[in-house]
Q: What sequence folds into this?
């Protein structure tokens, strides 16, 4: 809570009012700005990252072939930024079977929104010409 003095210069009226900043924060259903960016990191992991506007903070779940991702191959983070959230999913040891459409779904008390991105594994020359 904060005390704020409001002065109306046209009528010389002054009043004190206690404001609760939480009351004035705009409540917002999640909305992704665009499809996730995909970054192939030097350590071999793949990072999916997207920005989500939301208030309050969203819960974000990631899906592949309509199944929610879980397990130690995946790391999920939601990081608060100025006015939005950075939502990331990191995948360890990607294989050709990991190619396909990934979906992020953000949800809060005001609603939900989803966004999709297609991942295609980048193969090295050794992987392409590997003999069985």
A:
């Amino acid at each position: 809570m904060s005390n704020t003095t409001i002065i109306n210069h046209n009528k010389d009226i002054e009043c004190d009012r206690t404001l609760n900043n939480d009351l004035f924060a705009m409540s917002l259903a999640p909305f992704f700005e665009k499809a996730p960016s995909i970054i192939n990191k030097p350590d071999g992991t793949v990072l999916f990252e997207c920005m989500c506007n939301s208030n309050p903070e969203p819960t974000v779940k990631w899906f592949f072939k309509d199944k929610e991702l879980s397990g130690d191959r995946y790391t999920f983070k939601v990081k608060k930024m100025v006015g939005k959230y950075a939502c990331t999913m990191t995948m360890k040891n990607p294989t050709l079977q990991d190619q396909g459409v990934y979906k992020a779904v953000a949800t809060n008390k005001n609603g939900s929104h989803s966004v999709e991105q297609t991942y295609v594994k980048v193969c090295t020359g050794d992987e392409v010409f590997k003999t069985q």
Observations:
- The first helix runs from residue 21 to 24.
- The chain has two helices and eleven strands.
